């Protein structure tokens, strides 16, 4: 639907993705302001995405390039006739929005201090639609502490919204959260294998002292150590530590 405003200017009503600011969304949904204020109080940031609705825009026809396309009938849909489509290329700048008639859908993307856009919310349906998998590539040598810190922030943020009545959109999001549960609500365990070679016997402590020193080393770094001795061979065949 469109209306002519001048020789080359038309007023066009569109429906679909919109690029609007927070003030426009709050005009239609003032009830989400409390949610946004809570996010800010937690020290997090947010932005809106996937915004769609209806609006009136002003187009200068002299700056619009129209393209006519023909799509043949789709065999898989048993179509007998093709369809024509006219598309318009309006340049690098979006058209001037004269009036937003409605906002039909939008999402809120939340960023914690170290995890950018780690959670996406659908506030009107109170759904968590996305949870970032910060542990996707595992915990490597250089990324370990940082990734654990990011994962903890994501975990705490998800719990924050669950406590406020939000639910997960689908099983895909649930699986992401379960990985965080396994990491932080169960004791997270991992195994390392160390091969030791006696280089200077005068510095090597006894076995009990070595275990104590190793345990203290890991404990100071937030880790509890358990040594599992290999009993596949008789102990008498193992070379003792001096």
Characterization of the model:
The chain is of the alpha+beta class. The chain has 3 domains: 1-26 and 52-105, no CATH class; 112-190, no CATH class; 201-237, no CATH class. Helices cover 26% and strands 29% of the residues. The protein is built from 5 helices and 9 strands, in the order ββααββββββαβαα. It has helices at residues 22-28, 33-41, 144-162, 171-184, 207-219; strands at 2-4, 9-17, 45-60, 65-71, 83-89, 96-111, 119-122, 127-131, 167-168. The protein has a 7-stranded mixed beta sheet, sandwiched between helices. Strands 4-5 form a two-stranded antiparallel ribbon. The longest helix is centred in the middle third of the chain and has 19 residues, at 144-162. It is elongated and about 95 Å long. 13% of the residues are buried.
Relative strand content: 25-35%
* Count of individual beta strands: 9
Would you tell me the structural class of the helices and strands?
A: alpha+beta
Q: Average pLDDT across residues?
A: 82
Cα end-to-end separation: 90 Å
**Count of alpha and pi helical runs:** 5
Shape: elongated
Helix content: 25-40%
Rg calculated over all Cα atoms: 30 Å
The tally of domains stands at: 3
Unreliable residue runs: 233-238
Spatial order of strands in the largest sheet: 1-2-3-6-7-8-9
**What profile does the largest beta sheet have?**
7 strands, mixed
Summarize this structure briefly.
Helices cover 26% and strands 29% of the residues.
């Amino acid at each position: 639907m469109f209306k002519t405003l001048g020789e080359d200017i038309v007023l066009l009503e569109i429906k679909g993705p919109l690029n609007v600011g927070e003030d426009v969304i709050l005009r239609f949904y003032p009830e989400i302001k409390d949610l946004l204020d809570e996010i800010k109080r937690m020290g997090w940031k947010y932005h809106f995405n996937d915004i769609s609705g209806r609006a009136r825009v002003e187009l200068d026809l002299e700056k619009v390039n129209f393209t006519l396309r023909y799509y043949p009938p789709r065999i898989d849909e048993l179509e007998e006739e093709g369809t024509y489509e006219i598309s318009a290329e309006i340049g690098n700048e979006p058209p001037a929005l004269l009036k937003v008639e409605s906002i039909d859908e939008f999402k809120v993307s939340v960023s914690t201090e170290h995890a950018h856009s780690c959670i996406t919310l659908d506030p009107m349906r109170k759904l968590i639609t996305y949870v970032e998998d910060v542990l996707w590539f595992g915990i490597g040598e250089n990324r370990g502490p940082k990734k654990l810190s990011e994962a903890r922030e994501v975990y705490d943020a998800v719990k924050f919204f669950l406590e406020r009545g939000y639910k997960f959109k689908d099983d895909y999001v649930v699986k992401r959260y379960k990985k965080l549960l396994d990491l932080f609500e169960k004791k997270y365990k991992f195994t390392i294998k160390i091969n030791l070679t006696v280089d200077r016997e005068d510095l090597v402590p006894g076995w009990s002292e070595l275990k104590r020193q190793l345990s203290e080393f890991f404990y100071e770094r937030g880790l509890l150590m358990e040594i599992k001795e290999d009993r596949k061979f008789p102990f008498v065949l193992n070379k003792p530590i001096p």
